[in-house]
Structure formats: structure tokens, C-alpha cells
Hints:
This protein is α/β, with parallel strands linked by helices. 38% of the residues lie in helices and 18% in strands.
Amino acid sequence: xxxxxxxxxxxIKYHVKRYLLTHKARFKNKIVVDVPAGNGxxxxxLKDIGAIPLAFDLFPEYFTExxxxxxxxxxxxxxxIDKQSADVVICQEGIEHFTDQFKVMVEFNRVLKQNGSLIxxxxxxxxxxxxxxxxxxxxxxxxxxxxxxEIDSIWMSKQHLTNQIYFGHVFxxxxxxxxxxxxxxxxxxxxxxxxxLKTTSLFILLFTYPFIFISNLINYLKNVNKDKGFPKAxxxxxxxxxxxxxxxxxxxxxSHLFVEFEKEKEADEVLKGIKSxxxxxGIT
Length: 284
């Protein structure tokens, strides 16, 4: 008998299930937004462990759980829930489909309570197989998948339901870009969960790690002590975090990114505090 996705170690749903069951006490009686909810497997599990799931999807027609409501929602616009009303948001295999990932992260921030958790899973664009695939053909998997295109990358278009196109993996994202989008929208990395080893990435790692380490170390040292107009302690901490992510062997061989973020600030508070490193319109 074919295993269900949530029981198959090759599926990210399996690892999400294990994580939720391991930490089920944290989720009991908590309001958890599940978006995109897909067929409802995660919403069902959340309800079974005592959480209060709020399921949303661009195409709720594919949601199969009959005792949980899944509402149609376009996260590129706004989720139909109040500000600071959720304890947790789970975005499972969704961020790589969104055309404006920063806007989506800001929306996640809006609906979360202070110190709430945002759990994101996505195919790992930071593993070495993915980097090699991009180097060879700009594809997700060089030996079997074509680069993004207008045939394979349109996964769903139902104009009678919504004018939003559900793209395929056009917007794959690595840990560094995911980190900075999170920081700019008010989140910090709380935990990175390892999922499944990719043997091709491990093989590449054995030959390339010294070069990766040295290259990133040189880049770090060139930047960490430059005067960029920010407090030194803040600048050093930020570059150190990036450097440690760049040389993390687990991230280089993991099949998926599985990251839990914590909401530190409101997104508008972060935006008010940022400053440009470029002169404005040629005026210094």
C-alpha cells in the first residue's frame, strides 16, 4: 500500500507532522493559521493535537477535511482575520509560489501576536544540489526539471474563481534571502529543523566545503569591520549570523528549509527604523 504523504519520510509533510507531535503541548489551545492549507492534512493534525486551526487557501476546493472550514483567501491581498489574532502561522511549501514574498511576510506579521511563531517550509535552494542545478541550467533539478517556463511553471489558473495565478517553483528561496525578508518584516530565526539528507549534496560537500568556508570567511572579514553607518555591535552580529548560515553543513545537504521564526516587532516599526546605505537621488 502506498504511504500517505504525512507518513512518508521523503515528504515534507512527514517532518511537519513529527515536529507538531513532538511539540504538541506548545500548540494546545493555540490559534494556528494554516496557509496554504492544501488538502487539509496539517489542519487535521493541528485539530487532533488540540490546536485551533484556521485554514486558508487560494483553491479551497482541494481541501478534503469535512469538519474543518477552509476559506478562500489570497494572501497577496490580505487574510480575512484580525491583526494580532494568531499564535502561530504555518506556511508549508507556499513561500516559493508567491510573487511578492516580502508582502506575504508582512501579512504574516500582521496576523501574529507579539512573540508568535511563523513556521515556513520550502524546497531548500541553499543545498548544494540546488546550487549546482542553478549553475548548470538555472533549474531546480538539472537532470530532470527544466528551468522555470510558461508551460511547467503555471500550476493552477482558474480565472472563474480568482485572477491570481498559482505559479510553480518560480520563486524558490534560499536561507539568506528568507532570513533578510524575515528581518525586514519583524521576525528573527528561532530554530532551523533538519529534515532529510540529500546524498548528491553530501557528495558535493565532501569536495567543496573548504572552498565554501574560505570564500565566505574572506567575504565576512572584508565587510564586518567596514564603517557602514551602523552600530558596530549590530553590524558584527548581523554579518556573523549570515556567515554561520553560509558555512552550515546541514543547510548545504538538507532537502528542505524548515525554519521557525519569532515575531520581534511590528513590520511598520521595522520599516520606520531602516536607513539607506545609498545617497538619495545624488544628494549627499
